Amino acid sequence: MDSIELTKESGYQPIIPGLPDDLALRCLAKVSHGYHGLLETVSKRWRDVLRSSDYCNLKTREGWCGNWLFVLTEGINAQWTAYDLDADRWHPLPNIPSANPGWHHHGFSCVTVCNKLLVIGGSYAPLDPALSHQRPVPTNAVVQFDPFVKKWTRLSSMKTPRSHFACCVVCGKVYVAGGRTSSDTRGLALAEVYDPSKDRWHELPPMPTPHMDCLGLSYKGRVHVLSDHVGMPDQNTSEIYNPSEGQWHTVKDIWPFSRAMQFAVTVVGDDKLYTIVDWGESSIKTRDGNQQEWSNVGSVPPVFLSDHSRPLEAFGYGFAALHNHLYVIGGKVLKWDESGAGRFEIVKLAGVRVCDPTVVPLNWKETRPMSRPACGAILGCAALEE
């Protein structure tokens, strides 16, 4: 701990009186990130400790990252924000260094692995209406946010630039498959895997069927590629990759959503699947283990605005699982003119609702809303558990 110890000549004082400095450092390292600002006001000594490399290295070594929800909301100056579950606080993240400033980034994937947030691939399109004729440019770039040092860094790029692709984490590795490129309009069959310990991408066998606009799901140690076209008569299959076999398998689709619905699915525990079927109202469905049938758990309650008499159904929200709870984040509602004139206003939401899906009927609670200007449609959402 040389970097945080002060010499006797400079007026050494212990971090916490009565405790050895190594034990005091461990005590402070267990405190949630959300309290750092408060802790730094205690004394200059504590501020120096919290900003030291020893503090950061200890948290990294022990894996004391805390529990986080990382969320990206819509807007010209789109900025990631993070919810610290332990401190019940939202924190804006630094802006991602971009090679395409002034361009809209969409179609990317975001996952958490090894206590880091990764933002992978996607496409860039110009925000300037005068450049609307330009086609989106897919990227293979990968950036990483480290909550220990609160910085973004560039990682090795994917071998294939892609957007709107499947992505998930299985056994500490990141798998990507399918998606779009600027030249392939029918979707990709190409797949690859990222090893964080080596910062290296490797090609995988291609999928039997190309997929675009797809979602990746880690389930029971396998990669599931779910198409946004599921439910369509001619596209009713999903692809499953078994890393231990190194092979893809095509299975008949069993997912209860289609292109018209909210496309989100998450896993609680080891094998409890939850999805939102957004058809008129937002219903929570679940499937347990190897069962093929989905059952209703309950619904996401409608939104009530203080200046509007009727309940409103949200859309464009985020859906994630954290600490065995389901979170519904942000979104929008159409606030209709109650005079009957047929006019409406789009209202962006910052609220966050949470429930324990194992307790039926569902008991939804409001937790701390996102900090403005973060609100509206959710472009990216990922949960990180310690």
Q: How many structural domains are formed by the residues?
A: 3
CATH class of the largest domain: Mainly Beta
**Side-by-side strand order of the widest sheet:** 3-2-1-29
User: Low-confidence runs (pLDDT<50, min 5 residues)?
Assistant: 1-9, 258-262
Instruction: Tell how many strands the DSSP assignment holds.
Output: 29
CATH fold node name of the largest domain: Neuraminidase
Helix proportion range: under 10%
The fourth-level CATH homologous superfamily of the largest domain is Kelch-type beta propeller
Strand content: 35-45%
Ends distance: 24 Å
Q: Which CATH-level-2 architecture of the largest domain?
A: 6 Propeller
Biggest beta sheet attributes: 4 strands, antiparallel
Shape: globular
Keywords: Kelch repeat, Repeat
InterPro entries: F-box_dom, Kelch-typ_b-propeller, Kelch_1, Kelch_FKB95
Report on this structure.
Residues 17-54 form the F-box domain. Pfam families: F-box, Kelch_FKB95. InterPro entries: F-box_dom, Kelch-typ_b-propeller, Kelch_1, Kelch_FKB95. Residues 91-299 form the FKB95-like N-terminal Kelch domain. Keywords: Kelch repeat, Repeat. This protein is mostly beta strands. It folds into 3 domains: 8-61, no CATH class; 96-255, Neuraminidase (6 Propeller); 260-379. Helix content is 8%, strand content 38%. It contains 4 helices and 29 strands. The protein has helices at residues 21-29, 36-40, 44-50, 53-62, and strands at residues 68-73, 80-84, 89-92, 103-106, 109-113, 116-120, 123-126, 137-138, 142-146, 151-154, 166-170, 173-177, 191-195, 200-204, 214-219, 222-227, 237-242, 247-252, 265-268, 272-279, 281-288, 295-299, 318-322, 325-329, 332-336, 344-348, 352-355, 365-367, 378-384. The strands form 8 sheets. The chain has a 4-stranded antiparallel sheet with strand order 3-2-1-29, with no helix packed on it. The chain has a 4-stranded antiparallel sheet with strand order 5-6-9-10, with no helix packed on it. A hairpin with a 6-residue loop joins strand 21 (281-288) and strand 22 (295-299). Helix 1 (21-29) packs across helix 4. The longest helix is centred in the N-terminal third of the chain and has 10 residues, at 53-62. The radius of gyration is 23 Å and the shape is globular. The two termini are 24 Å apart. The model is unreliable at 1-9 and 258-262 (pLDDT under 50).
